[in-house]
């Protein structure tokens, strides 16, 4: 049995403000939320998982920290970022932004990550998954986030297996994303056996849940970027795992490394980068910390496993 994770103390409002200050670059410290029109997303494909049951508030967007966020998402979509055909490797990645299942960091943890993958020959797909409902107005939304962070730690920091039961709509969205990519693999020049997933914070929780309880999703590899590291019951067919976390992450750095230990104990490949500084939510923000190297490290890990090589290269080398 893996050791239990330590319970993270509740974060008072001032502590949360300090957390945000260490999580973001100096140029993006303006935390004021400003409503913005829903951006045009002509390439977004509805996943067909239906509207969120009992949802009353419509989807809305706002800007914060110089980035774009979505909330009250009721219909899931997938947006392709396809590489230059001359550079295509045949590998694909589903990208799951974070936001506590109450919002989605669509730009910093979605579009920018997907574009960086496409630049390396990887077909990337940003998953806009359905979210828990929050107040329609920004002031009410901000208050709900402060209340969430100042209350008791959520179950997924202590017992993530029990939290998977509450992620039914999100796991269904992830499964539909994998099904869609596989159904159009020939059109998008993708090897259906080389589709991975990377998630951030809550998106990392969804990524782990998809690998463990996603039934037919079966990602070829997964990335957990500053997500919870509590232990899981790891299945026999669990994929290789990449983890990146900052030691000064006020949400997950003090909860132990049960996830890493669980994966290793089950005999599955795992790579773990524990950066000295970076806070929570660093994503693709430029920062003077080594946490900014997480994407380079992730790409290097993918290359080590052969996922950045053309899909026929390995077979040709073996002939």
Name the descriptors.
single chain; 319 residues; alpha/beta; Rossmann fold; eight-stranded mixed β-sheet; four-stranded antiparallel β-sheet; 9 helices; 29% helix; 17% strand; globular; disordered N terminus; disordered C terminus
Write structural notes for this entry.
With 319 residues, the chain is an alpha/beta fold. The protein has a single domain, classed as 3-Layer(aba) Sandwich (Rossmann fold). Helix content is 29%, strand content 17%. The chain has 9 helices and 12 strands. Strands 2-5-8-6-9-10-11-12 form an 8-stranded mixed beta sheet, sandwiched between helices. A 4-stranded antiparallel beta sheet has the order 1-3-4-7. Strand 11, helix 7 and strand 12 form a beta-alpha-beta unit. The longest helix is centred in the middle third of the chain and has 16 residues. It is globular. The chain starts with 12 loop residues before the first helix and ends with a helix.
What's the tally of helices?
9
Q: Strand portion, in percent?
A: 15-25%
Compute the number of structural domains. 1
In the CATH classification, which architecture applies? 3-Layer(aba) Sandwich
Distance between the termini: 44 Å
The general outline is: globular
Sheet with the most strands: spatial strand order: 2-5-8-6-9-10-11-12
Order of helices and strands: HEEEEEEEHEHHHEHEEHEHH
The radius of gyration computed from the alpha-carbon positions, rounded to a whole number of angstroms, is 19 Å
Text of the CATH class: Alpha Beta
Q: Provide the residue-averaged pLDDT.
A: 87
Count of strand segments: 12
Q: Uncertain runs with pLDDT below 50, 5 residues or more?
A: 1-28, 314-319
Q: What is the CATH topology classification name?
A: Rossmann fold
- What's the story with the biggest beta sheet? 8 strands, mixed
